TrEMBL record:
It comes from Pristionchus entomophagus. One of its GO terms (molecular function) is transferase activity, transferring phosphorus-containing groups. GO terms for biological process: GDP-L-fucose biosynthetic process. The keyword Nucleotide-binding applies. Keywords: Nucleotide-binding, Transferase. This is GDP-fucose pyrophosphorylase domain-containing protein.
């Protein structure tokens, strides 16, 4: 569903105040209906996914995911469900993990070529949201107490009959809303790509669709484009209030999946991080990035760099072959259709919005047992990020526990408070518990880090 003359970006000020308010009301009602709607057990029968697959970071996290799945009614939405651990010792990315799933499918027969598969990538290390590094972002608690996985399954419940056999690939840390009037995808569609109207901040941290203004056809996809690229090639500044068509989920038809299985699984070992939009789909579109022909230029490279360059070249050639003649179908999902929870700040902002503006409930501690200071609940925050998040905790009630503002407290259990002193959790910190296993000794460690700490940095053990 595209406008006749769809631009690269959309002027944020094109609507009147009344139109904007009406659209915002519609978007809020749609989110509440799609994601936090009635339980399918009390709703008419819906077509299910043939198979639901969730990726995990390693075998330990896989087991944790399997335990948490007991509390999610996935059987209402899918016939089968499997958790697949990423290849050991490798940060695979969404693309590498997808190839690994195909390789594992040969051995374990998770799904057949004629199935409709829902694949959720939740195998990252969650460095930007460390409190989900153990339990996984896919089980993050939403304002109504449900896991985000349940919201996703409910939001996509009408999608299976609209798709061809193939794999619908979705990130764990985002909610995507599709149009109510969406029709079945074309019988010859190989790639189905939902596009979301997002601001400049989202654009430079996700991916952007470059679409021809005149024809509405895809030219290329740029993953995490630099601000300069948006300003020069799109004639729009992310800081000036423009909106861009951004990436989130995608659908790959069974025919393309078979080519990936034949060309990539055997010829391209998963040894480095690969991204769906940044690597797999880099060549699609009329101006997609193609791998150069002829001999590779190894000038100035050492042996390891030469090997890495050759492996990347081989990956790119195989992927280009898989998607060379792919027919692409785009759909404009409009604004307010993408909510990202990948960082602590984004999670706090969107959880607060979904709680207060959409569900009309306060953002109280989620799935927790504790006595908290009244001021935490009643204080009106002056900034969006001042609301704290408390999930899956059991904290002392005599005396009460005080949680600071803009704090995150996750998976913490505190037994009897023997000294009788209240526990004060400061502002701007992340507190979470994680299991450890060192030299046969198993237990739990509580981690406290500042929200401003850069957990993506590498530190020496000394």
């Amino acid at each position: 569903r595209l406008d006749d003359a769809m631009p690269y970006c959309i002027d944020a000020g094109r609507s009147t105040g009344e139109e904007a308010a009406a659209f915002l009301t519609f978007a809020r009602e749609k989110i509440a209906r799609d994601y936090a709607g009635p339980d399918p057990a009390h709703a008419p029968s819906i077509p299910k996914w043939d198979c639901l697959i969730i990726t995990a970071n390693d075998e330990q996290q896989k087991r944790i995911f399997e335990l948490q799945l007991v509390d999610v009614p996935w059987r209402d939405y899918a016939n089968k469900c499997f958790v697949v651990a990423d290849p050991p010792g490798v940060r695979a990315g969404s693309g590498g993990a997808s190839i690994w799933v195909l390789k594992q499918n040969r051995e374990h027969k998770y799904f057949d070529s004629g199935d409709k598969v829902y694949l959720i990538h939740s195998g990252g290390q969650s460095k930007q949201a460390p409190h989900h590094s153990t339990g996984g972002k896919i089980f993050m608690t939403m304002p109504d107490g449900e896991a985000i996985l349940r919201w996703k399954l409910n939001g996509y419940k009408s999608l299976p009959p609209l798709l061809r056999p193939g794999i619908f690939i979705d990130p764990a840390d985002a909610l995507v809303s599709l149009p109510d009037d969406m029709e079945p995808i074309g019988a010859d569609t190989h790639l189905f790509l939902p596009m979301h109207r997002s601001n400049g901040f989202v654009a430079i941290n996700q991916g952007v669709f470059f679409v021809n203004k005149r024809t509405g056809e895809l030219e290329r996809i740029v993953q995490k484009p630099q601000k300069k690229v948006l300003e020069t090639e799109m004639s729009a500044s992310p800081a000036a209030g423009a909106w861009f068509f951004t990436t989130a989920a995608c659908f790959i038809s069974a025919s393309c999946v078979r080519r990936l299985d034949q060309l990539v699984v055997d010829n391209c070992p998963v040894e480095a991080e690969r991204c769906i939009f940044g690597d797999f789909l880099r060549s699609v579109g009329s101006k997609g990035v193609k791998e150069p022909e002829g001999e590779l230029d190894f000038d100035g490279l050492d042996l390891e760099e030469m090997r890495s360059r050759y492996k990347t070249h081989r990956w790119n050639l195989c992927l280009e072959s898989c998607f060379r003649d792919a027919k692409i179908q785009l759909i404009d999902c409009d604004a307010q259709s993408f909510y990202h929870f990948g960082t602590i700040e984004e999670a706090g902002m969107h959880l607060n919005y979904l709680s207060r503006a959409v569900l009309k409930i306060p953002l109280l501690p989620l799935n927790s047992t504790w006595a908290y200071k009244v001021g935490y609940k009643e204080r009106r925050a002056t900034k969006k990020n001042e609301y704290s998040i408390v999930e899956c905790c059991n904290l002392p009630s005599n005396p009460h526990t005080v949680v600071g503002h803009s704090a995150v407290v996750s998976n913490c259990y505190v037994g009897r408070n023997k000294n009788g002193q209240k526990i004060n959790i400061p502002d701007e910190v992340v507190v979470y518990s994680t299991p450890v296993d060192r030299e046969g000794r198993k237990g739990w460690v509580t981690v406290v880090v500042g929200k401003a700490e850069d957990l993506t940095k590498s530190y020496d053990r000394d």
